[in-house]
Amino acid sequence: MTDQGESRPLPQKGGLGRGIRRALWGGGTAVVATAVMIGITLPRDASGDDHSTTGGPAAAPGAPGQQGAGSGDVTENEAPEGAHQSGRGPLTKAEVDRAKSIALRRDALRSAQDVDGGRGPEYLDTDLAEPADATGARTDRARRVEVLFYDYGHDRLVKKTVDLASGTVERTDTATGLQPPPSNDETREAASLLIRDALGTGLRADFTAATKGGDLTSPDQLRLRGITFNTAEQSAPAGLAKCGRHRCVRLFTQVKDGPWIDTTHLVVDLSDRTVGRIH
User: Fold this and answer.
1) What is the 3-state secondary structure of 189-244?
2) If we measure between CA atoms, which residue out of 193, 182, 199, 207 comes closest to residue 266?
3) Res. 111 pLDDT band, cuts 50 70 90
4) How far apart are CA 119 and CA 237, in angstroms?
5) What are the angstrom distances between the C-alpha of 106 and each of 74, 114, 123, 225, 263?
6) 229: burial class by Cβ within 10 Å (0-12, 13-18, 19+)?
């Protein structure tokens, strides 16, 4: 099937689909509030400061983290594998995979880039589209879903509204300055950049202290959570002024089976692949 959908800009305020409204919860949320929302208890003495010279952070229990903050390949309301769904029932993994496949058929997406600079946009999330009428009912019981991508080649959010029954894209919306929570891959890439950066010195030192001599070389050694950082909603120094137009991420980091290391004062700009400090 060909994409018959019309491409148009996403509205900056109001009129967003449920998936995008839900996705934007992290834009201007304070660190402590966000930590509560994702079940994290940060230790008071966790440092992660790049000037850290202490013998290491004291172990502090926290809720077990999970790598990444995105939804991966399924939505948070995923239905049982193989279940037949209709109307407003939760999306199955098969439906999510089909929606992504349909959304990526569009030739225009081939010029997009993912977080690693590869061909094609970075997949973020899939969710049911808003009902077509004000009553929340659709007489045709069509399964319409919204597939979110981030195009690093143009620093923009792309939403494809897909009709699963017909296998077509109904419409394409784009926006700049809208920053949904990062995907698992984006969170991992942000951690990788931080680990290698000079501002990651404190994180590496605290990891070594917490593991009694271990070297931090990979995000796989940490439990990670990521939230977006947008200067349209949060103040920041000049070095981070592009965040919001660029894709920027703050990280919650925990040594696996160990303490939290506070890195929330550091921001990774995934668009230009740099690291900056909030305070």
Assistant:
1) HHHHHHHHCHHHHHHHHHHHHHCCCCCCCCHHHEEEEEEECCCCCCCCCHHHCCEC
2) 199
3) confident
4) 32
5) 21, 16, 14, 32, 39
6) buried
CB atoms near residue 59 (< 10 Å): 13
pLDDT per residue as tens digits for the range 163-219: 998 999 999 999 999 999 999 999 999 999 999 999 999 999 999 999 999 999 999
Give the CA diameter of the chain: 65
Give, for 161, the enclosing helix (H) or strand (E): strand 156-163
Tokens linked to 169: 């894209």
By C-alpha distance, which of 200, 181, 253 is closest to 223? 253
Amino acid at residue number 142: A
User: Is 175 within 8 Å of 14 (Cβ atoms)?
Assistant: no
Beta strands in 18-143 (DSSP E): 122-128
Quote the CA–CA distance of 249 and 34 in Å, as a whole number: 13
- pTM of structure: 0.72
Each residue of 119-138: pLDDT tens digit? Answer: 889 999 999 987 765 555 55
